[in-house]
């Protein structure tokens, strides 16, 4: 779901800019984009998923599909992984992740999923193809089951919740102005 007026915004932008040098657009690097949600329970514990396809814990979310915004990605992945259409709030963190092995570098957005009450938690129906289990843990207790960059990214997201301001991070480490 795009915002109201999105199609009008696209039309108002006009025709795509022409290339000054033919073929330059095709030679530009491509980045992977992802969106995830930081959900908490009423005690402030973080919702973690145990994926079926990797050994580390994750938060609900995933990689964007073609022409999909990070927010739309997050909402779609939450719906797919948890079986619920939950609201997703403001951006907490925008994190750059360097390339690693076969994976391109990536821009990861962490959005505020808010606090889930007991009734909502009881309705979570994980997709068995993607999620082996889920649970709520303090970040410190989950840290040994997270990639170090994810632990740093989630710590930054918690800082953003406390401060009310989104953070830009690189590999999970906050970068402070001036850049």
From TrEMBL:
Its cofactor is Mg(2+). PROSITE patterns: NUDIX, NUDIX_BOX. Pfam families: NUDIX. GO terms for molecular function: hydrolase activity. Keywords: Hydrolase, Magnesium. Residues 29-161 form the Nudix hydrolase domain. This is 8-oxo-dGTP pyrophosphatase MutT (NUDIX family).
